[in-house]
Amino acid sequence: MKLVPLGDRVVLKQLEAEEKTKSGIILTSQAQEKPQEAEVIAVGPGTEEVKMEVKAGDKVIYSKYAGTEVKLDGEEYIVVKQGDILAIVE
């Protein structure tokens, strides 16, 4: 199965959380902060008002509490509106 977003929605796969701090301290899974960086997996067609600016494969930063978490075939994804994407990481 695959997710095909509608309208101005985008499917994201969250990047892995850091397991160590910069000073080398190893974090437990409870202490790890969910990253706000993700990879774009699929992009909807957009709407007459919204032109899609991201494409599959882009790395992006998105709003902390945005979207809906979805689990499909054992993988976790987040479906967000394009407006919840703050920046493309180059």
TrEMBL record:
<dbReference type="InterPro" id="IPR018369">
    <property type="entry name" value="Chaprnonin_Cpn10_CS"/>
</dbReference>
<dbReference type="InterPro" id="IPR020818">
    <property type="entry name" value="Chaperonin_GroES"/>
</dbReference>
<comment type="subunit">
    <text>Heptamer of 7 subunits arranged in a ring. Interacts with the chaperonin GroEL.</text>
</comment>
<dbReference type="GO" id="GO:0051082">
    <property type="term" value="F:unfolded protein binding"/>
</dbReference>
<protein>
    <recommendedName>
        <fullName>Co-chaperonin GroES</fullName>
    </recommendedName>
</protein>
<dbReference type="InterPro" id="IPR011032">
    <property type="entry name" value="GroES-like_sf"/>
</dbReference>
<dbReference type="GO" id="GO:0005737">
    <property type="term" value="C:cytoplasm"/>
</dbReference>
<dbReference type="GO" id="GO:0046872">
    <property type="term" value="F:metal ion binding"/>
</dbReference>
<dbReference type="GO" id="GO:0051087">
    <property type="term" value="F:protein-folding chaperone binding"/>
</dbReference>
<dbReference type="Pfam" id="PF00166">
    <property type="entry name" value="Cpn10"/>
</dbReference>
<dbReference type="GO" id="GO:0044183">
    <property type="term" value="F:protein folding chaperone"/>
</dbReference>
<dbReference type="GO" id="GO:0005524">
    <property type="term" value="F:ATP binding"/>
</dbReference>
<comment type="similarity">
    <text>Belongs to the GroES chaperonin family.</text>
</comment>
<keyword id="KW-0963">Cytoplasm</keyword>
<keyword id="KW-0143">Chaperone</keyword>
<comment type="function">
    <text>Together with the chaperonin GroEL, plays an essential role in assisting protein folding. The GroEL-GroES system forms a nano-cage that allows encapsulation of the non-native substrate proteins and provides a physical environment optimized to promote and accelerate protein folding. GroES binds to the apical surface of the GroEL ring, thereby capping the opening of the GroEL channel.</text>
</comment>
<dbReference type="InterPro" id="IPR037124">
    <property type="entry name" value="Chaperonin_GroES_sf"/>
</dbReference>
